[in-house]
Amino acid sequence: MSIKKQILSSSLWSITGTGATMLSSFVVFALMARLLRPIDFGVVAFAALFIDITRGLMCGPFSEALIQRKQWDDTTASTGFWMNLASAIVSAGAVAAIGSSCAYAYGSATLGDVFIVLSASLVIDALRGVHEAKLQRDFGYRLLAMRAVVASVISGVAGILMALAGFGVWALVGNRLVASVLQTIIITRTVPWFPKFVFSRAESAALFNFGANMVGARLLGQLNVKVAELVIGFMLGPVSLGLFRVGSRALTFLTAVAVTPIQNTAFSAFSRLHDARAVGQAYLRMTRATALVSFPVFLGAASIAPDFVAVCFGSRWKDSAPIMAALAFVVTPATLLYYSQPALASLGRTRLVLAQNFGVCLLNALAALATVSFGPVAVAAGQSARAYITAPFALSIVRRGIGVSIMDSLRSIAAPASAAAAMMVAVTIMRVYVLEDTPVPLRLVMCVALGAIVYSGLLLLFGRGYTVGILLELAPHLPPVARRWANKLIAWLQNSASRPVAGLGEL
């Protein structure tokens, strides 16, 4: 199978798995938001910040080194496994110690206990890190998707039952732990690989050399994502952090469904190219395709945020709506940079990844500190503003690493960005002035439908070249019926345009 077909097949499986997983977890989150208090969410969210940052540092770099290699070697993989496990044990102890310190500082024994219990998930996750790397290297996203769905559904049911039984904050802890255990059991029992009791100093040095810069890059990348929540948690407390987490949850869900599946396959795909020019072209195509979904999803979310929060989470979370809207405006720099790190890392240019993340993280922290005294909404707005300020710097590193100019990147997203911006204005006017007295659930449905119609219509009328390019790329891989309709639409668009538009090319 060609790299292009592997990417498409893997992305489809990843989209299916991630969509089902995120939908089930979002439903669980919405139900638990109605059963638990904001402070419960805030306590677990604060502990989860440290767990998630540590997990990214612990498992990612060594696994990525295995994916990036041209051939799989059991000695190298076993060495990576023991390195993962050792770092997980040390990290779990460090997180537990941090939790004890925070519990003492805040006078909350529950907070310390949550830290200690959740730190166990780091060791559990480390046991499957190399197995997942083997699957990703072999484009085994079907199994990864199935694993994620099963674990999400079962852990979600367990969390809801615990919430109904009155376990409070421990319902959220149980939900995370059950998901971790189930994912590890499924992956380790189905991937035909078992670590050897060997440890190669030479291979560990090679893995460490690749991973050293990636550890720093991942630390900065994780801090970049979590720094706003860290500042809110320390300076405003768990209730404000709970509101911020709920406001960002919807966007996390939408990103995971629309973007993360393709992003997850990008590193595996880029690592097979081993040529900066080819990686640059693939980077542009993936950015171009992602923009088709990311812009209407994020800008649409900004326009319907109050209704979305009210319907999904309940009236007690209404203060989360402006947070959701403010964060949604990060879409332009986010879309341009979704694939920058996989592209640079696939060519071994990890120092550029480190430099990119350092600059972004520094300004992100400054923005959070400058705005936190004005409340969580101001922090969200500051994070979006910071993204636009740092985007030219990050894109200049992309140009150095893979030869993609800033103008080429901007041209790749121009059509969907313009159509989505116009759609956002239309939906906002409709919601505020025309449907003001309509029941909230009905108004939400009507606004979503209007947004879809306006966005699609604008792309078909004014973004024919972009639309034809995307359709030409996807049509050969669609089912027969869908392929025929896609080809008819392509022919109509090309006939109505002044000149035909070429396809996006091959990987």
- Helix share of residues? over 70%
How many domain modules? 3
Report the count of strand segments.
Answer: 0
> What is Rg?
23 Å
Instruction: List segments where confidence is low: pLDDT < 50 over at least 5 consecutive residues.
Output: 499-507
Quickly count the helices.
20
Distance between the ends? 12 Å
What do these coordinates show?
The chain is an all-alpha fold and 507 residues long. It folds into three domains: 199 residues, no CATH class; 191 residues, no CATH class; 44 residues. The chain has 20 helices and no strands.
Put the structure in a nutshell:
With 507 residues, the chain is mainly alpha-helical. Helix content is 84%, strand content 0%. It folds into three domains: 1-199, no CATH class; 272-462, no CATH class; 464-507.
Which properties best describe this structure?
507 residues, mainly alpha, 20 helices
List the helices and strands and how they pair.
Layout: H1 3-35, H2 38-68, H3 74-106, H4 109-126, H5 129-137, H6 141-164, H7 169-190, H8 201-235, H9 238-258, H10 260-270, H11 276-313, H12 321-328, H13 331-337, H14 340-346, H15 350-371, H16 376-402, H17 406-434, H18 440-462, H19 464-474, H20 480-496
Helix pairs in contact: 1-6, 1-9, 1-10, 2-3, 2-4, 2-5, 2-8, 2-9, 3-4, 3-8, 4-7, 6-7, 8-9, 8-15, 9-11, 9-12, 10-14, 11-12, 11-13, 11-17, 11-18, 12-16, 13-16, 15-16, 17-18, 18-19, 19-20
